[in-house]
Automatic annotation (TrEMBL):
Species classification: Bacteria, Pseudomonadati, Pseudomonadota, Alphaproteobacteria, Hyphomicrobiales
Pfam hit, one: VirC1
Coiled coil: none
Name by which UniProt lists this protein: ParA family protein
Top-level taxon in the UniProt lineage: Bacteria
């Protein structure tokens, strides 16, 4: 029951969208997914309430620094993957969630502000490794990428990440209407009407390939030893 945390200290980086895409794709593949919605905006909780029952997905909201580990321990028997969606802020809950994670995904758009927010998460990961000797595996996922052009700002972000030897997922999340509309419509990409959502087939394929790449990085058997003993 790996724990995957989505983190960027800047809001609007595509963090919640990426978390929901991964959760629904893992669930569609038959995995039991528990989302810990630690974002005060409660976007995923609202989506879940709007959707009704979505097979293989549970959502827990009102997550605090004091409760987050307890939620993981209490639900590990009925969960294959935990996904944590954090607020776009640097706070104590961010540090706690990262410490509980098997993999941290850092969504970054092609802009310098997002890169700075992502860099703060990378700095926190480096401090954790240096101060307590715990290394948390992590990757950057590029979000809201244009399907037509690669912007100069995005190239700058890629160069910056490469200079820091940061792993960047091969699959970016492309800007698609379906990824926005699913929060308003509820359900999943698979239940949306292709007659009403443009390029839905391309959004579905993007989501599938993204989730497959994450599953290869974070297979089901990867779990932090201290959590197994808890």
């Amino acid at each position: 029951m790996p724990v995957i945390t989505f983190a960027n200290t800047k809001g609007g980086a595509g963090k919640t969208t990426a978390a929901l895409i991964l959760a629904t794709e893992l669930a569609r593949a038959g995995n039991r997914v528990t989302v810990l919605d630690a974002d005060p905006q409660r976007w995923i909780s609202t989506w879940h309430e709007l959707s009704g029952r979505v097979p293989n997905i549970d959502v827990i909201s009102e997550i605090t620094m004091a409760s987050i580990q307890g939620h993981i321990i209490e639900n590990r028997g009925n969960t294959d993957y935990f996904i944590i969606d954090l607020a776009g802020a640097r706070n104590s809950l961010l540090a706690t969630a990262i410490g509980l994670s098997d993999h941290v995904l850092i969504p970054i758009q092609g802009c310098s502000m997002d890169a700075k927010g992502g860099a703060q998460v990378l700095e926190l990961l480096a401090q954790l490794e240096k101060q307590v000797g715990v290394r948390i595996d992590h990757s950057v996922v590029l979000t809201r990428v244009s399907s037509l052009v690669t912007t100069r700002a995005l190239q700058v972000v890629k160069v910056l990440l490469a200079s820091r030897n940061v792993r960047v997922l091969e699959t970016p999340i492309v800007e698609r209407a379906a990824f926005r509309d699913v929060f308003d419509c509820g359900g999943t990409l698979q239940t949306m009407d292709p007659a009403r959502v443009s390029n839905l087939d391309k959004a579905r394929e993007n989501a599938r390939v993204f989730a497959e790449e994450v599953r290869r990085l974070v297979p089901l058997h990867v779990t932090r030893a201290f959590r197994r003993a808890a």
